[in-house]
Structures are given as C-alpha cells and as structure tokens.
Amino acid sequence: MPTPAERAALCGSAAGRSPPDHNCGFCNVFVTLALQNGPGYCGGLAMRTRSRMTRRVAVVAAVVACLSVGSPAAGAIDRAPASSSRPSVSASVSASVSASASASSFKALRRGDSGTRVRRLQHALKKRGFHVAINGKFGPLTQAAVRRFQRIRRIKVTGTVGAQTWRALGLPLPATKPNPTTTTRPPGVYRHPSAAVERWHAVAIQVGWAERDWKRLSCVIQRESKGNPKAQNRSTAMGLLQILYRVHRVWVGPDATILLDPATNLKFGLKMFKGRGWKPWASVSRLCDA
C-alpha cells in the first residue's frame, strides 16, 4: 500500500507537475472518491470527461486506490470456502446400493396378512385420510384403501403393498440383515464344513499351526476324532489327533489325560508334524488328498 508521500508523487507524476502543484490536490480528491466508491468509479469518470488532464489524473487515481485497498479478487479468493459441502459420489452410490438391497428384500403385504407391519400400513393410510380400521389385519377395507392410494399416486394398482407403495406412504424400508452364510472370508482361509472341527481352527493357529496346513489338519481331525477332544480308544490313542500315549509317553509325561485338552493335543501334534510331517497320520492323511 503506498504511503501518503508516494501517493502524492504518483498524483504529481500523473499531472505532469511537481507534487505541490494544485493538480496533486485534484488527484487526491479522485483517490478519496475511488476509495469510497471503488476504483471503477474514477475509471468510469475518466472515460466520460472531455479534459485530457482530468482523464489522466482520474486513471492514475484509480490505480493509486487499487494499490491502497488491495485486489478485491485476491480477497475473494482468500475468503473462498476450503471445502465443498456436496456429498461425495461414493457416499451417494453406497446409499443407492443400500436402498436397492432393502427394496429387493422387502416382503410384500397382501390381503390375509396380519401383524405389526400391517398395523403400520393402516396408520399411514389413516393419516392420509383413507377409511381403514387399525386392527393389524389386511382385510378388504385395507386392500381397497391401498388400491385407491396406488391409483392416486400413479403406482401400478395391485392391492398389494410392495416396496414402492411402502415408500410412497412415507414408511422406511427395513434394514437388510447380513446373511451369515455369505460372510466375506479372507482369501486363502479354509473353513472346514463340520462345525465340530472348525471350532478348533483358532486354537490350532494359536498354538503354532500355519494357516496353510489347516485344511489337511482339519481333515485329519475329522477322520481321527470327528472333532471330539475327549475321544480315546483301547490303544491309548487320545484327543483330537489321537496321539498314542504309550508311544509318546516321554514327551507327554506321566499324566496321559493332558492329551484330552484340545490346545495341548494340538501342540504335541505340531511337535510330531515338525519332526515327521504327516507320517504319524499317514493312514488318514492319504484320504485327505482325495
């Protein structure tokens, strides 16, 4: 921003005379007008005047005023909002997909139905001036009211309440519940079809078994014990992996019953696997390749 002295010098130069000249005061008047009304005021005045000197002084006064007040455009840019309030495209798409899923899973209401949903339907119809009894039963009066409503809203007249009619009544669609059978699983993670065996999956990983070995290990468990940690036979084979106590007594110790603990059994089984691979269970392991 120019100082008063610099402004006077500019005005004097515009008039073609030294700063103390009377034209300097004339220019300062233009600067004041420009500061009050905007630089464009003096610019417009310069275009309308016939005096060459006045035009020159008015133009320079407008320039001086611009330097004094700064650029409006810059101020406008500084004040511009940093972010937009419009919703993102991904949010809109997610909402649309969710609404479509809810509509596709909506169970239509028809004559003969009863329950809470029918009662909500009757309340919505009653609120819109239709004569229905709020009794939770989809009878002929409710069906007639639905048909009239569909005709008014130019919905296909069926007398049944689908997702479109339900939404038109201002009723929210029920939220879709995730299907446990279609739960997303990490790629490469095997799930044994038997729940009795699969329940030991996390235990096996916890004691040190690799995820890549679970498919065959679960098959061995299924064939050896069917997932029963207390399984044992006369040959002293015990637990999930049917570890022979009489053969591995040195590892297990004097108490054979610890092999009936699932984690302990899987831990000893891992020790055997690291030493001999799948050979201790060769008879059943071969069947797991089928």
The strand line-up of the biggest sheet is 1-2
The end-to-end distance, rounded to whole angstroms, is: 88 Å
What do the pLDDT scores average to?
74
If classified by CATH, what would the architecture of the largest domain be?
A: Orthogonal Bundle
Alpha plus pi helix count: 15
Q: So what's the CATH class of the largest domain?
A: Mainly Alpha
The low-confidence parts are: 12-24, 69-85, 87-94, 180-185
The helix-and-strand class reads mainly alpha
Global outline: elongated
Fold-level CATH name of the largest domain: Lysozyme
- What percentage of the residues does DSSP assign to strands (E)? under 5%
Helix content: 40-55%
Order of helices and strands: HHHHHHHHHHHHEEHHH
Task: Tell me about the largest β-sheet.
Answer: 2 strands, antiparallel
Tell me how many strands there are: 2
Q: How many domains comprise the coordinates?
A: 3
Give the C-alpha Rg.
44 Å
